[in-house]
Fold this protein.
Amino acid sequence: MLVAVTGSTGMIGSVLVSSLVADGHEVLRFTRSPSPGPGAARWDPAGGTIDSEALSKADAVVHLAGRNIAALRWTPKVKREILDSRTHGTRLLAETMAGLPDGPRVLVTASGINFYGDRGDEVLTETSPGGQGFLAEVCRQWEGAADPARAAGIAPSTCEPGSCRRHAAGCCPSCCRCSGSGWGAGSALAASGGAG
Ligand SMILES: NC(=O)c1ccc[n+]([C@@H]2O[C@H](COP(=O)([O-])OP(=O)(O)OC[C@H]3O[C@@H](n4cnc5c(N)ncnc54)[C@H](OP(=O)(O)O)[C@@H]3O)[C@@H](O)[C@H]2O)c1
């Protein structure tokens, strides 16, 4: 199977690509890089362009791309980038796939557990309604941006990860800088060789 992956250079994407290749699949990485290199194609979610000919050859698409939410302080500008980088990219993929008669019919898009907001001890399932707050709203719009694919009969699957970390992935210095809470400390422990 040929799997197109956006955000393939990221923390989850790089592991996913290795795993797909190890399982015998071919991977076509979509990147914003001006020189994508072998096995990759170019897209520009902000500018609304994508190599649709390359996309049409894929059997499935996994969409992970989006502005990293942990790297910077959330100024209004950064919040706008966090939202737009997800909704624009998802809509571009969904619309492009919808317009490809022989293109991929499988679309898996990332979202986040933040969809549910902070609900304390409430038990949440996949049928629970979305919550409140900035990231919940980002996830709601992000998932909704796949509507053009739904309208074309492609049923997108949404993956809502919790907090994924890799040993020495480098996210923790900024977590700890932003947070004096137990969450930041817990992340640092996990990334330095604990739960990972
Ligand atoms: N890691 C987690 O704990 C976690 C939890 C819940 C949800 N998620 C979601 O899962 C997805 C993958 O997570 P990750 O941790 O692997 O992310 P990541 O390491 O931040 O990588 C995201 C990738 O998206 C692309 N990207 C970066 N800035 C962008 C922008 N402004 N516009 C469009 N694309 C941009 C980059 O790929 P190119 O430079 O190659 O284009 C980058 O490699 C993200 O959407 C994230 O929100 C992650």
The longest strand covers residues 26-31. The pocket of NAP is lined by residues 7, 9-13, 31-33, 45, 64-69, 81, 85, 89, 110, 112, 161, 163-164 (CB under 6 Å). Residues 168-196 have pLDDT under 50 and may be disordered. The helical segments are 11-22, 52-56, 76-98, 134-144, 147-151, 172-178, 182-191.
